[in-house]
Amino acid sequence: MPSLTDLYKVFEQVLLCESAVVLAKSPQLCSEFISALVDLIKPAPYAGECRPYLTMQSEFFSASLDGGAPKLFLIGITDPFLLKRVLDMAESAGRAAPLLINLYDTDFPVPLKAPHVHHTSQAEADLPNGVAVRSRQKTYMKVDRLFLKALEDMQTDTTTAIDSIGPFVRRHFATLIAQFLAPLNRYLATRMATSVLSPGGNLQYAHFDETEFMQSLKKHRSSASTKGQTPFARRASRDQLYRKFCRSPSFYSWLDVKLSLEKEASAGLLGPTTLQTVP
C-alpha cells in the first residue's frame, strides 16, 4: 500500500460494500490481502462478489445477467491488462470505477503517508496505457494518529516480531467496527419483537426505519470518530457514513447474520464462547 493512512480508506471502501481491485505481483499476495480486508470489517460481511484471485479466463466477466462484471466486487489480480478490462467494463456499464489498491511497489516499512512525487512510479509504469491509479476522494472516518504511529514504529523496531503486526492491526479495526456498529445495535434492541406465531417464540426485528435510526444516532451519538474541523462537520460526516452503510447490501447481510446468531443463541445452539461474541 502507498501508506499506512490508506488502511482507513480501504476499510471504508469494504465496509460500505463498494468495489475495489487489488493489483499485486503474485496470486498469494492478492488472496492474503483480500482475506485480510474482509476480516477487518467482521462481523459485518462484504456483500459484493469476492474473488481473492482472478484470471482472464474467469467466469467473473459473464457472471451477471447483463453479461458484464457484478455491480459490486472485491477482486485480486496480477495482470495489469486485466485491470484495464475491469475498469473498461465498469465504465461501459455506467458504474463508478472501483478503488485500485496497487501493491506492485509496496515496500517495507510502509510509510505513514504517501510521498508526493511528480515522476511516474514503477507501479504506474507497470500499468497499461490509459489506466490511472484512482483514489477514493471522500472518506468519513478520522484516522487514529496514535495507532498509526505505533504501527509505523512496529515496522522498524527490531524487537517486534513481524507476525505480531497483523493481530495488532486486526485488534484496532475490531474495536473500530464495534464502535461503528454500537449505535445500530442499540437502535435494533429497541425494535426487537417476539413472534407469537411460533410456540418457541422466534426473535425478529420490526421494520428498519432509517429516519428513526438517524434520530437515535443524533440522540445517543457514536464513539467512532469522524472527520471534520467543527462539531457540525463531524456530525455531517458521521451521518453520511451511516446513511451509506444502511443503504448498502452489506447492512442487510450483517442484519441477517446478526439475527441468525441471536436465534441460535436463544435456542441454546451456541456454546458459551460463541455467545460472548454475538455482534
UniProtKB/TrEMBL annotation:
GO MF, any single term: guanyl-nucleotide exchange factor activity
Signal peptide segment: none
CC per GO annotation: recycling endosome
Source organism superkingdom: Eukaryota
UniProt xrefs under InterPro entries: DENND6, Tripartite_DENN
Domain UDENN: 1-256
Similarity field: Belongs to the DENND6 family.
Full protein name: UDENN domain-containing protein
Species of provenance: Cryomyces minteri
